[in-house]
Structures are given as C-alpha cells and as structure tokens.
Amino acid sequence: MIHRADGGIRGHASLPSGHAHRRRLSLHRHMERGKEGQVLHRSKRGWVWNQFFVIEEYTGPDPVLVGRLHSDVDSGNGNIKYILSGEGAGTIFVIDDKTGNIHATKTLDREEQAQYTLTAQAVARDTNKPLEPPSEFIVKVQDINDNPPEFLHGPYYARVPEMSNVGTSVMQVTATDADDPTYGNSARLVYSILQGQPYFSVEPQTGIIRTALPNMDREARQEYDVVIQAKDMGGHMGGLSGTTEVKITLTDVNDNPPKFPQSVYAMAIAEDKVVGEEVGRLKAKDPDLGENGLVTYRLTDGDGIGIFDIATDSETREGVIKLKKPVDFETKRAYTLRVEASNVHVDSRFIAWGPYKDSATVKIIVEDADEPPAFTASAYSFEVEENAPDGMVVGRVHAKDTDVANSPVRYMIPRYTDVEQFFSVGPEDGIIRTTRPLDRETLPWHNISVSATEIGGHHQDAKVRVNIKVKDVNDNAPEFATQNEVLVCENVTPGKLIETVSAVDKDEMAHRQFFRFSIAPEAANNQNFSLKDNSDSTASIFVTRKGFSRMTQDIYYLPIEINDGGSPPMSSTNTLTIRVCSCDSKGSILTCNVEPYILPAGLSTGALIAILACIVILLAIVVLFVALRRQKKEPLIVFEEEDIRENIITYDDEGGGEEDTEAFDIATLQNPDGANGFLPRKDIKPELQYPLRPGGHPVANSVDVDDFIKTRIADADNDPTAPPYDSIQIYGYEGRGSVAGSLSSLESVTTDSDLDYDYLQSWGPRFKRLADLYGTKDSDDNS
Predict the structure, then answer these.
(1) DSSP-derived pairing of the beta strands 223-231 and 135-142
(2) pTM score
(3) Terminal-to-terminal C-alpha distance of the chain
(4) Which of 110, 118, 380, 748 could, after both became Cys, cross-link 86 (CB 3.0–4.6 A)?
(5) Which positions ≥6 away from 746 have C-beta within 8 Å?
(6) Which parts of the sequence belong to the Cadherin domain (predicted)?
(7) What are phi and psi of 710, to 5 degrees?
(8) Which stretches within 586-704 are classed as H helix?
C-alpha cells in the first residue's frame, strides 16, 4: 500500500516491483504558521494516488481490486460519497462509494484496449455537492503472453535461379505478435526452419530465407516446400509460435548444352522432288526452358552442303533439312552432311562448363523415280517463210528418257497451244511441219508447245515452248496511208501544192527502201493536176490550171500508182479524191456542198424540215387509225366458236339403253359458267346481280332429261342478262334411259325405223315442230 505523509486523499494500488509511478495533484490549500509568527499559505494536495494497473485475462472467481480512492475530508462517518465516471465506469470498473475501492468486474484484453481513462470525484452524500474538483486517472491493462505470432501474408511464393551460390537471398518473411512489445519478451520473435533443410536456411532475427546448398539443379528438382516458424519469448521455453509455408521455385538458367539423341541420322529423298521440299528433321534436346533452350542448326561439312540446306523450326525447335538444288539418281545416289546444333543465348557464368553445342552426321539417300522425259533445250525458236507450202519443215525438237530404262519418247502438240492446227509434229522424230500456208501479216509469231511422253511408262510428260517466227515475203501491195478527200478552192492558182500523200505496206520494209509514186497511165495526160515523187515515200500533188467551177465539176478523181520496190516488186493504183470548194478571197473554204444549186428556188432548209415533220405526223396518225381499226370487237354473247368447242363432250359410246344407269353423268352437260345460276353477257356489263333462285336445279346425279331441259329453258327465260335475241343452246348429250333410244342417224340411214314419236307431243310447244315432222312421217308411212 502507498501512503502519503502530507495527508490529503490517497489512492492505493497493488503495483509490481519496479513499476510504481506517482502523480500528485493539489486540490486544497492549508495555512501553516511560520517561526516568526507569520501566517503562511501553501498548496494542499487534495488527491494523491498512483497510476493503476490491472492484469489482462484475469479469470479468478472474484472481481480483481484495481485500487482505492480516499479523501482527506473523509472522516469515516460515511458522509462522503465517491463517484466514478469515464471509460468502462459502471460496466467494467465499479467503485464502492463509501470506501473508494475500485474493482474490475470483467476480464480485460490489452490487445483490444490497452488503457482506460476514468474520472473520480468526492461529493457530499446528502446533497451530492462536490467536495473536491473532479480529476482524471488512467488504468493500464498489464500485458501477458497470450497471443502467438502470426504470418499475415502466408503462404508465400518465391523464385530463385538454379545453381545459385550458398547464402543467396530468396525472400524475407515477417510475423507479427499482438502482445506488448515494450513489456517483457512477449513480442520478441525468433525465426527457425522446420522443413526445407538442408536446401534452405532462415536468419533467426530477420526471417530472411537463404540458399544453403550449392548447385541446386532445376532439371533435377524444380520446387521446394519450406516451413518457417516464428516463436515469441525470444524462442525460450513456454513461448507461443506460428508457422507458414513458403513454396520456392528454381528458375531456369542456361546450364545445359544441346545434345543429339543419336550421332547418325538416315534420310531419303526421291529424285523427282522439287527445290524447297523437306528432306527430313532432326532435333537436339536441351532441357533448359525459354530462350535458354533455344537451339539453332547449321551445316558444317559434307558433300551435300551445296545441294541441301537446313533451317530451324521456331515452334518445334527442330532442324529442317530442305532440298536446295535438284538431285539426280543417275548422277549421284548418296550425300553426307554434318549438322551442328548450338544454343542461341549462352550464359557467361557457365561458359566454362563446356561448349554449348553438339554435332551429328546425316546420310541422305537419293531414290530413283520414274521421271518424265527431258528436252535437250529449255525452249526452241524456229523460222519459216510465209506462204510456204503444206508440209514445210519448221524445225526439230528432241527429248530423251533420263531413267535407267531409257524408254522411247512420243511427241505431240497440245491442241490448246495450236488451236487452228497450223503445225504438226512427228510422233517419233519430233520434226515440226506446217499444215497450211502461213500469213505473216495475220500472225507474225506462233507460240506452241510440244510434249514428250514415255512409251510404256507412267504417262508422265514434259513440255517445251516452241516459238516460230513467220518470215516476211513481199506479197502485199502498198496503199494510201489515209483515204481523206483533198479540198481545193475554185480560185486556186496553178502550181499550188494541195496535198502530200504517203503510203503504207503490210510487208516489212527493207533498209533504204522507199515507195515510188506516179500518176497512173490512164490519167497521165490530165491537164488538172501533177505529181512529184519526193523519194522519201511521199509524193506532192500540184494544181496545173486555174478556173475550177463546182457547177461544172465538183469532184475529180486522180489515179496514183504506188510501187514498193521490193522483191518481187508490188504495186497498186489508188485513187485520190479531190473536191472543189467555194472559198473567199483569202483562200478560206466557205462551203463544199452542191445542194444550194440543186434545190428549187425559194425553198430553204428550214422549210424542208417542216415538210418532213408534217409527213411524219401524218404517217403516225394513219398507223394509229389502222391499228385501232384492226382491233377485234368482243362478241355479244358468250357462245363463241371457242366456247362451243370447250363445251362439246367427245365420246364414242351411245349408252346401254334404259338399263344403263352408270354410263354418263348428266352433270357434265351443265355449263360451268352457269353453275352459279346465270350466264354472263360479254357485250354489256350487268348493273344488277340477281341472287340465285332456290331450288329448280336438278341434282348432279339426276337422269331426268325433261326436267333438266325445262330448268335450262326457265333459266334462259328469266335471266335479265341473257341476250335479247334467239340463241342456240348446245347440248353434247343424247340422253339415256329414254324410250326414244338413240337419236343418232347412223343406224337409221339404211334401215326403216318403227319407233313411235307420238310422245313428242307431250314435250310442250317448243317441241311441236319436231313432233309434227316425225308424226307426219309416221302417218304417211302408216297410210
């Protein structure tokens, strides 16, 4: 217990050794008398207590005593009342208002709250008036080792290069302890390794993990699981601990050279393979990863270096041997190559471990293949004169079988290269001949192909291009370069140059070869124009007189003979047309037409156009009128010839008499257009549509002809759309089951009929005429 000698209010608390702290507050002042009788005033300490402490995690049966408050004004008679307020007052901390004893009623956890600030005050019990000013004090929760260390960020993942030196730092792990680091060793941590030895170690104070073995090889083992422990109390007995896992991965370095699995590789290629085709592949194995395992290949030696080439496949890391030049089984049948594989990236730290490359031998066998024939030249060029007779030899191509069998060869010209079949080739000798005369001016070059095929082989063929030039022969006469008219003025002066003519020739012109011009012999004596040969394949035309008149003659024709001077020489006569025109005084042409002198006087061009327009309009009106007249009018009734034909029922059976009830259906006699109750008129458009009369129509299977005919007559009489004139009703049915039998005259021509036609009298007035005819005849016969 702590007691103050100067009186006042005392606070008592149980304190551990070495942890007593004192705090003094002056609350009241008291008077003291000095030696000289002077009254002195001094500050009196009203509240005096120490800082209170309470141990955390107390689990005793009774509340723990935190401390005691006592006031100097408290005489012990119970008139003083102590009040406690602040953090936890009344819930965690309670005070005895008479004695001032403070107790903790709950278990405290320093990690949740390390201290509590409270306020104490002494008041009069009867009036609750403060006797002392309130004052604060602190209750600190004393720490105990009740929290183990924790790794907040575990598990951990780390990487370290393989072949690292001993002591290479991998990573640092850190644990935290919730206990008070300023009190005791509760938060003093020590690290140790529980799993992962002897490969790794950990520094006890810092938690840094380091490599413990040299030359750890990733290719042998890549991952390690390490367990690290952190223990408080400085690692001593009784301390709490926590662990974490660290997964350490060894990263790759280029510490392995490439290595061929075998020293000799055998490959084969057929002689008919083309350049660039793959021969084979080989691969040097490198266990390193990424760019450390990249391998490149090259040819270092062998007799096939110029024939073959090698490239690196970036995806598969294989060396691909390809054909660089064609091979020939008959020339060389085997090749040898020396292939070297080396790393692209070499680590200088491990260069002393040996060369990072390896070599292997590749033997390539050339296989025989049935090759097509080979021509002695890659292309042929020949010449032949145009107009040469059929069968003229143009040239010869030659091909031979390069295989060991040396089979004979057959030649042919593919038709698509010589569509018009100007040439033929000998199937055995390869001689190309013409099949018809050739014309250089039509086609100066012929580009064909000749194919050669082995006889008895696999029908493989080879083709070669043959270019045939048709040599020129002077077989075309020259002619004017242009056929334009020459215009000359009526008032032209004699000797004036009116035109310079030139010529062209479809044949080729030799060097220093010119066209020669002259007036044809039949016009050599003309008095109008003259010609001068300029000796440069042109000629000048001059006027030799004056006084031309369009009224007299407006066009002159001058025949000119042109000679090409070739071998043999060819010449032709061409006519130069010269038209006389009206010109002004300056020689400018005004018009060259002669129509104004021929047209009737007073009739201008505009008048002619108007006349032609009127004629065209009249013709259009006439054509329109004729077209309208030719249109056919619609017939006034529907019973056209076409309709009649469509309603005739063709049959070749007269029926079986009264007992035949299934021979024919009378419904087929009904007009399809009248099935709805009326027949439409085509000459007028009905204004009213009359409804159908109920009943009146016999059923489809009815065989009563009398009822059927009466119904049709009634329809015709009562139909407002029927024609207002008599019309014939066509029936293609003779009836069946009638006592009259057949009405056909085929049987009554040669035989007398003994039928009785008196029943016709009962058919009504419409059949009176028929009854009179037959009845009269019967009466005459009977008489």
Answers:
(1) unpaired
(2) 0.42
(3) 182
(4) 118
(5) none
(6) 71-151, 152-260, 261-375, 376-480, 480-598
(7) -60, -40
(8) 595-598, 605-630, 641-647
